[in-house]
Amino acid sequence: MPKLIKDGSIIDNEWTLIAKPEGDVAALEVPAGQVIIPVGTWLAQKETLQTRTDIGVWLDSDDSAELIGADANRFPVIGVNFPLFMDGRSFSTARLLRERYGFTGELRAVGNFIRDQLCYLRRCGVNAFAFANPEINLEEAVKSLQDFQEYYQASVDQPLPLFRRRA
Length: 167
Hints:
This protein is an alpha/beta fold and 167 residues long. Helices cover 23% and strands 21% of the residues.
């Protein structure tokens, strides 16, 4: 079973990420079991899928958090995709899901992010990391969550800026 990092620990990845189909996302057949489907599929099939508790969604870097908005907390897991490690739009999506929409479930980075980004992703509210590259040493990657001990700015994981914490 593939592994991922969640809340600083290496665990089995029990969820299957369903890729975007080449054709119509509305026509995608959603299998049984714990699956993370493209947000377009969820939106197209919401009426038939909303009774399932074993479905998560993932947003591509060009999908906005507003697509699921207030429905965010109905999902046990939401993925934010990084098609390229240089595409940072999913950082903003993660932060919006936590701060604007109050998402409290598992927020999972998926795709082509790199180990050097883990610390910053956690600051945006991401608490699970499923690397696209199976060669990544997860034991070493976990250490990246502690790259920095102190920050000046406020964030999801530290809502007070440094000057307020020291006052």
